[in-house]
Design brief:
The complex is a heterodimer.
Chain A (H helix, E strand, L loop, with lengths): L20 H5 L7 E7 L5 H16 L2 E7 L6 H13 L4 E4 L8 H9 L3 E5 L11 E4 L2 H19 L5 E5 L5 H14 L8 E6 L4 H14 L5 E4 L2 H13 L8 E6 L2 H8 L6 E5 L1 H16 L7 E4 L2 E4 L12 H6 L5
Parallel strand pairs in A: 1-2, 1-3, 3-4, 4-5, 5-11, 6-7, 6-8, 8-9, 9-10
Antiparallel strand pairs in A: 10-12
Chain B lengths: L23 H32 L3 H4 L1 H24 L1 H17 L1 H7 L2 H28 L6 H27 L6 H5 L3 H34 L8 H7 L6 H7 L1 H32 L3 H26 L4 H21 L3 H14 L2 H10 L6 H10 L2 H17 L6 H19 L15
Helix pairs in contact in B: 1-3, 1-6, 1-7, 1-9, 1-12, 3-4, 3-6, 3-18, 4-6, 4-9, 5-6, 5-9, 6-7, 7-9, 7-13, 12-13, 12-15, 12-16, 12-17, 12-18, 12-19, 13-15, 14-15, 14-16, 14-19
Classes of the chains: A alpha/beta, B mainly alpha.
Chain lengths: 334, 443
């Protein structure tokens, strides 16, 4: 799951061709193959980064890459159509970021029946066995890192934890993994008295702001805010500022690692720490593995962790982290 | 890095021969030397960021690259002069070329051993050779033709230094930075994969230095097997004798004493600004590594163009007044870099080259003004101010580790403020002996 707006535009399936000019110029060593990449949408910089890196990697691997995106984060119909189109156009392998983990499965099965290797990026299918492999952030670890950070920071600042949790939505695995990872990292469980309030913000900034305002009304003493992603964090920051809360008095943690958040919120300390994920690793590792399998190499399988790092400008002892400069160098988006 | 040339040379008379008969090809070879050390010097500016990534080290540790490089220049300045005096310029040039070639070749074992310290040793040897080469080549060029055309000859040769400097950055921007293993990829690598990526990345560093070493060896062979005696060499050596009491007289001269300090801070500001341009682009703005070298390239091109403009302006305005204005501009640009953590800040960093462009020759001229027969000895002191380029990047790197790449530009900011203070001092203080500004060396 990545933060971002749900609005989108029409599927842009087409011939986003990324030929390996260098390899071609040198005579090339391998036959060109066709692969496909289907993301959720083109408005979210997370998926734009994923597509751009996939195109670059395709160029380096003598791959003709077809790309498509849905209209929004929940546009399953466009993804179903894109899967069929790419299969018909001769794609031997397809990487997909499922907009709907269950509803996409029949379309994936049809593609696999036609001999196409399908892997999921970022978001798992339900069941996970619907695809050969998943290249994604270890979301439990992402949550765990910020949980450990928040715990250590609270101890360092000698504050009694009063935690607000701004979650994703019921039943979505990424949100649950991050939530549970945070609790484990902090050393608490759902229902413990440290958690003074929670709400579903659906990864949306406006909804997060409204939810945070509500939670602050219920308990003005909130001093730790867990946010499922960075748009949620921005909404929470607005609400805290409106409530006159000093950013130094609240430990706010998140997940994503977008450039906007690192530069405008982590660097100045509005977000104390964020778990940065790497869409470029998903794209690069996924494409190389699928291309290798199509060319007769080992088929990818299982879950492949694409990495996560804790980014903060205020490190705490005992929790490994990278500074904001690392975050800026490796963030996604502009 | 160019060194200061010798003191004022008379204007060439009409039709004065550029070089003595038979020395045209040696002169061309020496011009190649000027370009070669420009390339090597500015390639090190790229290396700081590259080594930081490859060895996963702090900025202060990475800045040891400049300490090794400019430290070697400083350390070898006097031995180089002794070699020239005792054995002549040709031996000096060959010694420098040979040592620098060995330094370039030392990158081969360094990239096998994969130890940062070995790279620093290779850089030290390379820079030591280039220091001797530079110290020998400048007077050698002067001695290669009639005195009347010495300035023209030296300016022509030195014009190739910034060309080489730009080639050095270009080598880094094209051959190294775009190929370096991305940090994101390292996040998920196993220890074995990390070792392999380190080896691959260091092989990228090896390429340009082997290329430089190859060119230097070629020049060495061409010079070694060519007769290159110059009629003027003997007299040049005699002029090099130090007059007794010169040190004391120079020390008592505040314009000179403060001038050496100003040159120290000028070189420091220059090396700091250029060393950390790429890191600012990456760490503050998020410019991808493969694109970040182009900002340093832009900075050097700006430096080159501005130098011509400044030469023209120096004919209109009093040098110390122009120095004050440009140093103040530099301070302002550093402040923008410190507090605008975005593309505006990066553009300010690039534009610091504008203020730097006139400083070395202008400070050189102001500090040596009116020194008379002590000029030559005094010039050596100004050249040794290159030590600023070894020390201050370490301090900037340390501050960068503690407070970030943007705030660390306080270091060149302070350096440029001290240069401005020197300009102000020169404007407000009468010179006891008077005298005209000395025609500058170049940097």
């Amino acid at each position: 799951m990545t933060g971002g707006h749900v609005s989108g535009r029409l599927v842009a399936l087409g011939g986003a061709v990324a030929l390996s000019l260098g390899a071609a110029a040198c005579g090339g060593g391998e036959d060109e193959i066709t692969l496909g990449l289907i993301t959720k949408q083109e408005q979210n910089p997370f998926f734009v980064t994923m597509r751009e890196v996939a195109e670059d990697t395709a160029g380096d691997n003598d791959v003709n890459l077809l790309t498509a995106a849905g209209k929004s984060d929940v546009d399953n119909a466009s993804q179903v159509a894109a899967l069929a189109d790419m299969t018909r156009e001769g794609a031997k392998g397809i990487m997909i970021v499922p907009a709907n983990s269950r509803a996409i499965v029949p379309a994936i099965e049809r593609a696999r029946d036609a001999g196409v290797i399908v892997v999921a990026l970022d978001t798992p299918t339900q069941p996970p066995s619907a695809v050969e492999a998943l290249y994604a952030t270890n979301n439990r670890r992402a949550g765990n890192l910020i949980g450990r950070y928040a715990k250590a920071k609270a101890e360092e600042d000698a504050v009694e934890p009063r935690i607000a949790m701004l979650d994703l939505a019921p039943g979505i695995s990424i949100g649950e993994l991050r939530h549970n990872g945070f609790l484990t990292g902090f050393g608490i469980q759902d229902g413990d008295p440290e958690i003074v309030g929670s709400a579903y913000a659906e990864g949306n900034e406006d909804k997060a702001r409204a939810a945070m305002e509500r939670l602050l009304d219920e308990d003005p003493g909130i001093n730790i805010v867990y946010t499922i992603n960075e748009p949620t964090a921005f909404g929470a920051i607005d609400a805290l500022e409106d409530a006159g809360r000093d950013e130094d008095d609240v430990i706010l943690i998140s997940v994503d690692g977008s450039c906007d958040a690192i530069k405008d919120a982590v660097r100045p300390g509005k977000i104390d720490a964020t778990s940065q994920q790497y869409p470029e690793n998903m794209a690069r590792e996924g494409l190389e593995a699928v291309a290798g399998a199509v060319r007769g190499g080992p088929s990818p399988s299982g879950f492949l962790d694409t990495g996560v790092e804790l980014i903060t400008s205020d490190p705490v002892e005992g929790v490994e982290s990278e500074d904001e400069a690392f975050g800026v160098r490796n963030c996604w988006g502009d | 890095m160019e060194a200061a040339a010798s003191a004022a040379q008379p204007e060439p008379r009409a039709k004065a021969r550029l070089v003595y008969p038979g020395l045209t090809i040696p002169f061309v070879l020496l011009i190649l030397c000027f370009a070669a050390w420009g390339a090597a010097a500015n390639l090190t500016d790229v290396l700081v960021g590259v080594f930081r990534t490859i060895f996963d080290m702090s900025n202060a540790q990475a800045a040891l690259v400049q300490f090794a490089y400019y430290g070697a220049y400083f350390t070898l300045a006097i031995p180089a002069a002794m070699i020239n005096r005792r054995f002549g310029y040709k031996v000096g040039v060959l010694t420098g070329l040979g040592l620098a070639s060995i330094g370039g070749l030392l990158f081969i074992p360094a990239s096998e051993i994969l130890v940062y310290g070995v790279f620093l040793i290779a850089l030290f040897v390379l820079a030591a050779g280039l220091s001797i080469l530079e110290t020998s080549a400048n007077p050698f060029v002067i001695a290669m033709g009639p005195e009347e055309s010495a300035t023209q000859r030296l300016n022509l040769a030195q014009a190739f230094n910034p060309v080489g400097a730009n080639i050095g950055v270009l080598l880094g921007a094209v051959l190294i930075l775009p190929q370096i293993t991305p940090e994101t990829a390292k996040v998920i690598m196993s220890p074995a994969e990390l070792d392999q990526s380190q080896e691959d990345d260091l092989a990228l560093v090896l390429g340009p230095y082997l290329g430089i070493a190859f060119v230097l060896i070629l020049i060495w062979l061409l010079i070694a097997f060519r007769k290159m005696s110059t009629p003027a060499e003997a007299s040049q050596e005699e002029e090099g004798e130090t007059r007794s009491g010169a040190l004391g007289r120079l020390w008592r001269n505040r314009h000179y004493r403060y001038g050496v300090a100003a040159q120290f801070f000028n070189v420091a500001a220059q090396v700091c600004a250029w060393t950390f341009t790429i890191l600012y682009a990456q760490d503050i703005v998020g410019v991808p590594a493969e694109d970040s070298g182009w900002y340093l390239q832009a900075s050097l091109i700006l430096f080159l163009v501005a130098r011509f403009v400044m030469t023209w302006l120096l004919g209109i305005f009093r040098p110390s007044r122009l120095l004050l204005v440009m140093a103040s501009l530099g301070v302002g640009l550093c402040l923008v870099a410190m507090f605008s953590l975005n593309m505006v800040g990066l553009i300010a960093v690039v534009c610091i080259s504008l203020s730097l462009s006139l400083m070395f020759p202008t400070i050189y001229g102001l500090a040596l003004q009116g020194l008379g027969e002590d000029t030559k000895f005094g010039a050596a002191g100004l050249v040794m101010a290159i030590l600023g380029g070894a020390i201050m990047p370490l301090i900037q790197g340390k501050i960068m580790d503690e407070a970030g790449a943007a705030f660390a530009f306080v270091v060149p900011g302070i350096c440029l403020a001290l240069v401005a203070a020197y300009a102000l001092f020169d404007l407000r203080t009468r010179r006891d002996g008077g005298g005209e500004p000395v025609a500058e060396g170049a940097h």
